[in-house]
Specification:
Layout: H1 15-23, E1 26-28, E2 35-37, E3 45-51, E4 55-61, E5 67-73, E6 78-79, H2 81-85, E7 93-97, E8 101-106, H3 107-116, H4 118-144, H5 147-162, E9 164-165, E10 170-171, H6 178-185, H7 189-201, E11 205-208, E12 213-216, H8 219-225
Antiparallel strand pairs: 1-8, 2-7, 3-6, 3-8, 4-5, 4-7, 9-10, 10-12, 11-12
Helix pairs in contact: 5-8, 6-7
Length: 231
């Protein structure tokens, strides 16, 4: 069975064509913390996450080492496609968090397949539209909403993607240190700690700093906070 069957960008494609892509690509399992590429690197490949319980974090650092985490990708996602599509340098870093298996697809293979396969083109358009909508919402929130609302929207998004139901609520997949949550919003760690402490006191979340695990105990209250449900 081809490893690309579960990857959304290749949905609906012929298994023979997927096998040809894989034959010209490289499968590997990078260690936790590995930087797959860095901001400014050449765009020589697209990466598909084909297995694993971990994630790949997409983001960047400014000159003062303040971080911004743009997105978190898991099994079934691709990343690195933007720079390949417009033949530009990488705009972000991509760092492995946990255990993942990646297929490195050379840019020439990716572009050749895209040019000859309408299903892949349609999948890619839908995927990019979804990511653009999310980017617009985040930009709108950064302009008009409080930091607490922005954090609530991010943790709800992460819970919806890969959250795990437990006896206490929805536990986010992966590790999220307080600094990681700050990077999701381009905020300071101290401001995130203040919000988390208030949420913990009100029973909205459980946060285990030793394991960097966040559990949403009262999801409905967080949805009300971001305006996702009416009062």
């Amino acid at each position: 069975m081809t490893t690309l069957l579960a990857v959304v960008a290749f949905k609906g494609m012929d298994s023979g064509e997927l096998s040809r892509i894989e034959a010209r690509s490289r499968l590997f399992e990078p260690r936790d913390g590995t930087k797959i590429f860095a901001q400014g690197d050449a765009s020589d490949a697209v990466y598909a996450i084909v297995a694993g319980t971990g994630h790949v974090r997409i983001g960047a650092l400014d000159q003062s080492s303040k971080g911004l985490m743009v997105e978190i990708f898991g099994t079934g996602d691709i990343f690195g496609e933007i720079a390949v599509l417009d033949s530009s340098a990488r705009t972000t870093d991509a760092i492995v968090d946990g255990q993942v298996r990646l297929l490195r697809i050379p840019s020439s293979v990716f572009l050749d397949t895209l040019g000859s396969n309408p299903a892949m083109g349609a999948n890619l358009c839908r995927m990019l539209a979804t990511r653009l909508r999310r980017t617009y919402v985040l930009f709108q929130d950064a302009t008009f909403k409080s930091l607490e609302v922005r954090l609530a929207r991010q943790v709800l998004y992460l819970a919806g993607r890969e959250g795990r139901r437990t006896a206490h609520g929805i536990q986010l997949a992966g590790r999220f240190r307080q600094g990681d949550l700050a990077d999701l919003l381009g905020a300071t760690t101290r401001s995130i700690i203040t919000i988390l402490n208030a949420w913990r006191a009100n029973g909205l979340v459980i946060y285990d700093p030793a394991r960097a695990q966040l559990t949403l105990c009262r999801e409905l209250e967080l949805q009300r906070l971001v305006g996702a449900v009416s009062e």
